[in-house]
Sequence to fold (320 residues):
Amino acid sequence: MRGADALASPVQYIAGGTTLVDLMKLDVMRPEKLIDINALDHTSLGQIEAGHNGLKLGAMARMADAAEHPMVKRDYPVIAQSLQLAASQQLRNMAALGGNVLQRTRCPYFRDTSYAECNKRNPGSGCAAIDGYNRSHAVLGVSDRCIATYPGDFAQALIALDASMEILGPNDRRTLEFAALHRQPGDAPEVETRLAPGEMIASFLVPAAPWTRRSLYLKIRDRQSYEFALASAAVALDLAGNIVRDVRIALGGVATVPWRAKAAERVLRGKALDEANAQAAAEAAFAEARTFKHNAFKVALGQRTLMRALSEAAAMELPT
Ligand SMILES: Cc1cc2nc3c(=O)[nH]c(=O)nc-3n(C[C@H](O)[C@H](O)[C@H](O)COP(=O)(O)OP(=O)(O)OC[C@H]3O[C@@H](n4cnc5c(N)ncnc54)[C@H](O)[C@@H]3O)c2cc1C
Ligand code: SF4
Fold:
């Protein structure tokens, strides 16, 4: 029996349907009812608003619209890039931001019901990936029960920029830090989020901050389009010359949840952004990595990805 997680509910909202319908065809998700929320496109849930205090992205805004929005591209490039580098143009036209953050792992053993062992799909059954082929799996936030990678890109941009979410429930509304949405697998990999059944994400709120303009998303994958990340880094920098006044870092493709690398941020804050300090930050980011038979390469790849992202962000020419 799963915990109180919206993704376990027999009633599922359907936005673009680009991942839910796939999982239903594979018999991995078996909702009894679907509630089509696409008519909410015409409410504030479909809007993108950029103002002095920050950015508000409606959960029904399409990935393509947010990726191509001029204010998002100028003032929050890490968000635009994380969306632009995800999936394909056709998928981005269909898929909504709320559905994107709730996509489920691409672990092949989770998506193929002919494998009996998958604690996430069938709690208590074991994990076929731990002793199986685990090249795409996580090295951060793993447990003895599950090592599945969180697959999305946009979530790394949100977590790096301290975003929060407005959530509508059957009886009330609440705000939740985006960083609290996804749960690490621990002893209960089947419980993936802190969204209760019936709750709907209404919007994402990204506060304005000195580091949002000098921000970028770097994604490394097996091929250059239409592919999930092997490693990615969302970085946002506030620089005084070469000195890091403040920095925000999140990692993708290497962790079980969107991963904020606070240890790496601490290494850099107040220091010169040179190669030695970037290397030290990259090492701190992966200090607690736990690797498996086929995915040890992700530590070095993740470190190089972060170092390159920091260097490219430092070199950005900011719009006036
Ligand atoms: C071939 C392929 C490649 C892909 N590559 C990438 C990639 O590189 N990077 C990446 O990030 N993604 C990638 N994706 C995933 C894609 O981005 C997602 O399928 C898409 O973002 C999901 O959005 P949707 O609106 O279609 O969600 P849906 O399929 O409609 O819904 C997904 C889940 O979210 C729930 N939900 C939807 N909206 C809400 C809401 N407002 N409140 C509460 N619950 C809600 C639904 O009930 C469901 O459980 C890829 C997908 C495919 C098929
Ligand atoms: S890594 Fe997680 S999702 Fe994949 S088989 Fe193991 S328990 Fe299932």
Q: What stands out?
A: The longest strand covers residues 231-240. The mean pLDDT is 97. DSSP finds eleven helices and eleven strands in the chain. The pocket of iron/sulfur cluster (ligand 2) is lined by residues 105, 107, 109-110, 118-120, 127-129, 146-148, 189 (CB under 6 Å).
